[in-house]
Specification:
32% helix
Amino acid sequence: MAAIEQNPVLWVENLDVYQKKARVLSEVSFSINKGEFFYLIGKTGAGKSSLLRTLYADIPVRAGQVHVAGYNLATLANREIPYLRRKLGVVFQDFQLLTDRSVYENLEFVLRATDWKNKEIINRRIGEVLEMVGMESKAHKMPYQLSGGEQQRLSIARALLNKPEVILADEPTGNLDPDTSEEIMRLLVQISRDCAVLVATHDFLIITKFPSHILVCEDGKVRHEKL
């Protein structure tokens, strides 16, 4: 594990999390440094996904402070959200790939949408992230030609394109078999050497295999444990 910088890239203080008009979590406080790996656990409906959505500015901050990758989400203007998200990598349970585009084209789409213009540099970066996730030989495959694990590796590669400071993963192993789940978690732990990683999961077997910090959503609160 790389040395941890004691300068949080994700810092939350006294945050209230809302889902529409309902408050689902209150007075949430925690921080994550570069080089740290955190789990987010709790029963269905406990507020895990709502907390993650707040962290990537899909749900606005109504009360409390949230600082992510240098951005204050409490005062974040709508026009700034795309720039925040360039410093984040988000990984979803259902992959959310462009099904009509190849592996390469899925990644190229994100880079061009975030103002990468030089074809040579785009090619190089796509090659780098595919190598990082063990998918360098799959660039011209279509998503339907990939296994579930390969699709999630592509999703992780997409999240890494802009060299994020924080990775947020919402049930990244939820659709995968146990062996593939372990491979994906090993990859995310490896990635956490270079950024902060927060993974929402129900998979307690994975947590015991890769023990780390745990944020527990329960009874409208979040507490920090260390496994």
